[in-house]
Prior knowledge:
Layout: H1 10-20, H2 30-42, E1 46-49, E2 55-59, E3 71-76, E4 97-99, E5 103-106, H3 113-127, E6 136-141, H4 149-153, E7 163-166, E8 174-179, E9 181-190, E10 213-222, E11 227-228, H5 240-251, E12 257-264, E13 270-271, E14 275-281, H6 286-303, E15 312-322, H7 327-338, E16 343-347, E17 355-367, E18 370-379, H8 382-398, E19 402-409, H9 419-432, E20 437-441, H10 446-451, E21 458-461, E22 466-467, E23 475-477, H11 478-493
Parallel strand pairs: 3-6, 3-7, 7-21, 8-20
Antiparallel strand pairs: 1-2, 2-6, 4-5, 5-23, 9-18, 9-19, 10-14, 10-15, 11-13, 12-14, 12-17, 16-17, 17-18, 22-23
Amino acid sequence: MGKLAELEPKTVFRFFEELCGIPHGSYHIDEISDHLAAFAKERGFSYIQDKEKNIIVKMPASAGYEDQPVLILQGHMDMVAVHDDPNADMTKLPLDVAHDTKWVYAQDSSLGGDDGIAVAMMMAIMEDPTISHPPLELLITTNEEVGMDGAIGLDTTLLSGKRLLNLDSEDEGIFTVGCAGGVRVVATLDLADVENDELAILDGAASVDGIVHGTKLKVSATGLQGGHSGQMIHLGRGNACRILARVLLEAQKRFAVGLSGFGGGTACNAIPMTAEMEIVVNEADADAFIQWLRLEEQILRHEYKGKDDGLRLHCSTLGAGESVHTVAQSVYAARFLVAPPDGVQAMSGVVKDLVETSLNCGIVELKEGKLTAYFELRSMIGSAAMALRDRVVAVTEAFGAKTEISASYPEWEYREQSPLRNKMVRIYRNMYHKEPVVEVIHAGLECGVLAKKIEGFDAVSIGPDMHDIHTTRERLSIESVKRTWEFVLEILADKE
């Protein structure tokens, strides 16, 4: 018997736990896509598995619903797969799910409720022939978390429906009817190309030349909350990569520091919770560096008080050694990482308290002398996203980096006339005896991509309560899943 077997709705949680047993982080979706294809085939439904590994399942209408408009139910099969153990291989590990009677979570890792719960609901609909529904097209896309690749590559002529119920939101009672667009910038700096450039000279630095020989140290930034870079960017939470780059830059004003390693973050659309670097300082400076780092931690903790109170800087000694990179290269690396903008760039002038434009440096890695930073840019206005893209490119290329633009996806504009939204508001009001919140959000949704492809597109996004998605603290409300499931069933059963 599964760990979630007694939770209601039983069929939904049974399939959710089944999905959790299949590793399905972004870019590692072949197994789960094949599983879903086999699931549809075993139940006798017509299905399509396209070149992107997207799944489309066609379900004929229930008796008496043949004249109802086709409804597309949509979610994505991939998840942001992160683990407390940086050495854990999430491409092979199933999720260790558990619950405390109120919340479902995964031990030591993210849960993938975003968007496994949507897939589980669609599987439950396929499983139960007694559910009343109009003609359905179940669309389960791939690699949403890394740029909506599946939706971008989808041939929408395979779909006949114009109305779409997206099940990829994380707040019950909120109808999302518009979202930000975005673009990704990947900037790579080859440190071997850096010589004694004037940008690498810092006042007060002991040296701008040469490899450092002395004591090797590992410095890490930990204890940060992280979170979704669209939904939580306005909270001012610390970005571990940016914080550690700042520490590196500040240290170089006082010590000769040679860089050997730097890395942090797990996904472009997640605010990094941890980052670490390996450096070498002169042996005579090692104790002074550690004492200075304690003071720097106090400064940073004061800055993030009330926003990210768990911030900690750790330092451990790795023994004697020499740095991989020169002091000049190390200074240049630090400046390259702190120079681009970060966080909220503009608030909407139309919608109160809505972030209009932002960016997040989600991943930094130093491999074979090449320092790469991955930036996720978002905006409710397409031109603002492009302007921010050009700014990030200009800053990083000024350092000599090579940039690549990828994962561009459009904004989803609010539709004033929406029969689907009107229907859902009516049903929600009758079920909950209150009004739903209808809003646009700063996060990106596949609805934006699909809206540009499907003429007459009418969509609403909903979902059960989830907290701290894209982190190892992710949890999914059991009662909210039950209510959301019942709401979805009412939407399917409602005749126009």
